[in-house]
Amino acid sequence: MYGIILIQVLIDILLDYQGRFFYILIKFDLFQVQIGFVPILSKSNNIMAPKIYYMAASPPCRAVYMTAKAIGLEIELETVDREQLRTDEMLELNPQHTAPILVDADEDFTIWDSHAIMIYFVGQYAGSDDSLYPKDNVKKAAVINQRLHFDNLLHQRLRDAFTPIIMGIEEDISEEARDGFLEALGILEIFLKDYQWMAGDDITIADLSILAFLSTVETVLPLDPERFPKLTNWFGRAKELPYFEECNGEGLDQIKEMLKREVPLI
């Protein structure tokens, strides 16, 4: 028993000195002590938080923010605008001049695209709980990847529907864009046919990415619960996540200000 207590004290001292990295997991029976180490996300003065170049109104940026919150990762948000993304400094980080962009200085790693960043966050910082993106479950990861690829289509449908309105070219969504949007929402309804969440019975980064998208849509296109009952139920549960408002409130307010009215979908 004294040996176990001594080991715990020594490990705690190392943790305080290093400022992050591991906590101890002790398993013991009558004759043996097993010690394992699991990553945690505490911060010291010597550790730089990963930086996200960020636009609050952007659904992909908000999806990355929610992922960090979901795994307890402290990040630094630096707000940028479209003009800043085209400066030489930013183009060196991301030649596609899009946000979000991740700069993880401690790992000497830079990447853009929200899906790539979300996967990286879970793999690098979530420790033993990788349920948001289970790296050792190939089939589950494949389903999540499929949902993330579909999320790209959702954003294309969103641009098709709203860009002409935001630019003042049209006052309402075109019939073609309306049909495409309804088709996409219908596929989300199918995803939820047998599951509580988008890729199964546990929440994943696919849910967070689609949640950021759908919360944007809802500012002007309220969901029809009769036409999309499962999607409406999913959306209500997802908005109850403890970090939803913190990660989305500011951006959704900006979008409402840009559009300033509801657009009928049907």
TrEMBL record:
Pfam families in the record: GST_C, GST_N_3
InterPro entries reported for this sequence: Glutathione-S-Trfase_C-like, Glutathione-S-Trfase_C_sf, Glutathione_S-Trfase, Glutathione_S-Trfase_N, GST_C, Thioredoxin-like_sf
Chain segments annotated as transmembrane: none
CDD domains: GST_C_Delta_Epsilon
Protein name: Uncharacterized protein
Listed Gene3D superfamilies: 1.20.1050.10, Glutaredoxin
A single MF term (Gene Ontology): glutathione transferase activity
Domain of life per record: Eukaryota
Assembly and oligomerization: Homodimer.
Domain GST C-terminal: 137-265
GST N-terminal domain sequence ranges: 48-129
Gene Ontology process terms (BP): glutathione metabolic process
Organism listed in the record: Ceutorhynchus assimilis
